[in-house]
Specification:
Rossmann fold; single chain; six-stranded mixed sheet; 22 helices; alpha/beta
Length: 588
């Protein structure tokens, strides 16, 4: 482990963001109880993904090896995983954290000699590459949200608040504790907030996926100094990183180098340069070790000998294989294998990890309360979204109302009414997130639907009865609810936005093709009357959202007279008006 001199280096932070140097860091941090870090060992890790090559039905499965035969140990301290882009760093980190799909995964990951529990991801901390803090909330509110959901319900609220205050001091965030993350927060403070949300549960193991990405050099250095300080107090920190500068590299306790999903070094970071020198790759005195390792891995290292181009090309093609073989035959690999065998001997048997039920620290209702509160608060603190939705609905209502302004109760008004009523508009359980999301969204849909109905109904001059107006508003609101639910269902099933848009378009076109208008039925580009559709396809009409919204014409047509003669006869939904030749009967 690095000496104390590396830990006490002054932390640099932008003065304009009220940063605090480590020298001013709260003494509570040094008095914090020593965190008991865990030892994470990985045995024969293999990971492959199924790729498909070819077109459509002729596509053939083509498995791709992402990680191959990885063995090693991550002990308490600052453990870095280094490698070029596409080397499998993030996939390897996800596997160690228990966050990878077990499909295509083989091998074992042990924590203190035992298999990972099903809820290991709830017991450990994981800081993703892109900060996922809620920008409309303050630093304190984000930490309080994490404390409310991740700490046991038996912990008093006063202790949770004390834990939040302690973390604010520990992470040098006191001066910006009540500042929203959308303004007045530097990149380093935002990253430390993300780290703080994971430290709420005081995890024995903390994973970080490229924590310096998107940060300037001084800010990245300050974040790594914080991690080094935590690691020196006994916590196990495992992180992936791409190309750190020397001031960051020298903080690492252990270093794991990956290339093409295979390991070319795993051992003390302070011994890595000597290892590469011994296998024929000496580093220049003033070269950054991290840059040097990547140059060697990528085949860009130039030995101090004259070689022909063909020899150089051959060397670049075989450099990866040579590095892998050199490490397999090294003393570091043999010592690691011996230690792994000792760990396995402490276990009677090692079984394949199987998914189990995750136990949450808080109840369903407690989670729902906090997630709904945050979602609603975020909605209220983002007025541009709400105003935009209301504005769009008012604009559309005015356009529709102007087009059908004071529609007449004659034969020319019949076709207008039959088309003007169309309105088509994912720390907790998935069900909690969904319910919170849908409840807040329904509130907005209700407001916009009511506004739309009020403007359109009275601007057009539809039936002036309370019952008819309430029926109109209720139907428009239900159509908006259903359309929103359908779009959520489609988008939740697709990870590619383009595919979701395509499926959304196809679905809406399909439903419009099942329109209930007996005069203007669109199906495969032809005008088709709904009753004329063959029986084995007729059931599809029940899946059309616009079909139910189109039932508003029943609400509007009943009791209206569209014919001047004879005056005693009125159009209704069950009879054809004499002398008019227009049927008001709707096929549902």
């Amino acid at each position: 482990m690095e000496g104390a001199g590396h830990i006490n280096i002054a932390m640099i932070e932008d003065i304009s963001t009220n940063g605090t140097s480590p020298s001013k860091m709260s003494p509570d941090f040094n008095r914090t109880r020593q965190a008991c870090g865990s030892t994470v060992s990985f045995h024969s890790i293999q990971y492959k993904v199924q790729m498909r090559s070819g077109f459509f039905c002729r596509a053939k499965p083509n498995p791709k090896e992402v990680l191959m035969d990885l063995n090693g140990i991550m002990r308490p301290g600052l453990n870095a995983i280094l490698g070029p882009t596409g080397s499998g760093k993030s996939s390897f980190l996800d596997i160690l954290a228990g966050r990878k799909d077990p499909l295509g995964l083989s091998g074992d990951v042990l924590v203190d000699g035992a298999p990972q529990p099903p809820n290991f991801k709830c017991l450990s901390g994981y800081v993703v590459q892109e900060d996922v803090v809620m920008g409309t909330l303050t630093v304190r509110q984000n930490l309080s949200f994490s404390a409310a959901l991740r700490l046991p319900a038996s912990v008093p609220q006063s202790e949770k608040e004390a834990q939040v205050d302690h973390l604010l001091r520990e992470l040098c965030l006191t001066k910006v504790a009540d500042t929203k993350l959308t303004r007045g927060i530097s990149g380093g403070e935002r990253k430390r907030t993300s780290i703080g949300m994971e430290l709420i549960i005081d995890p024995a193991v903390l994973f970080l996926d490229e924590p310096t990405t998107g940060l300037d050099a001084s800010t990245a250095n300050s974040v790594l100094l914080l991690l080094k300080r935590m690691a020196s107090h006994g916590r196990t920190i495992i992180m992936s990183i791409h190309q750190p500068r020397y001031s960051i590299y020298r903080l690492f306790d252990t270093l794991t180098l990956l290339v093409g999903g295979r390991m070319v070094y795993h051992g003390p970071a302070s011994n890595a340069l000597d290892y590469f020198t011994n296998i024929g790759y000496p580093c220049e005195p003033h070269n950054n070790p991290a840059d040097f390792f990547l140059d060697v891995i990528n085949g860009d290292f130039m030995k101090p000998t004259n070689v022909h181009d063909t020899e150089l090309g051959s060397t670049r093609q075989n450099i990866e294989e040579r590095l892998v073989e050199e490490f397999k035959n090294s003393s570091y690999a043999s010592d690691t294998r011996a230690e792994l065998r000792r760990i396995l001997q402490t276990k009677e048997c090692i079984s394949q990890m199987r998914p189990g039920n995750i136990t949450y620290n808080t109840s369903f209702l407690h989670q729902l309360q906090w997630v709904f509160q945050r979602t609603f608060q975020n909605l209220m603190l983002t007025p541009q979204t709400s105003v935009a939705q209301v504005g769009v609905n008012v604009f559309l209502a005015l356009v529709v109302g102007a087009i059908f302004f004071t529609v007449q109760d004659d034969q020319s008004g019949l076709q207008n009414r039959s088309e003007k009523h169309e309105y088509i508009s994912g720390y907790y359980r998935v069900s909690v997130y969904f319910l919170s999301k849908i409840l807040c969204d329904l509130a907005m849909r209700t407001v916009t639907s009511v506004i739309f109905s009020v403007v359109v109904y009275f601007l057009i001059g539809l039936k002036s009865t309370v019952e008819a107006f309430l029926t109109f508003t209720f139907t428009v609101t239900l159509v908006a609810y259903t359309a929103t639910a359908m779009t959520m269902a489609i988008s939740a099933n697709q990870s590619v936005v383009a595919l979701a848009n395509i499926f959304m378009t196809i679905t809406f076109v399909f439903m419009m093709s099942l329109h209930v208008d007996p005069c203007l039925q669109i199906f495969s580009g032809l005008l088709v009357n709904l009753p004329s559709i063959v029986d084995w396809l007729a059931w599809l009409k029940y899946f059309s959202i616009p079909r139910y919204g189109f039932a508003l014409k029943i609400n509007e047509f009943v009791g209206l007279n569209f014919c001047e003669e004879p005056p005693t006869q009125k159009a209704n939904m069950s009879a054809t008006t004499a002398g008019c030749g227009v049927s008001a009967a709707g096929q549902m």
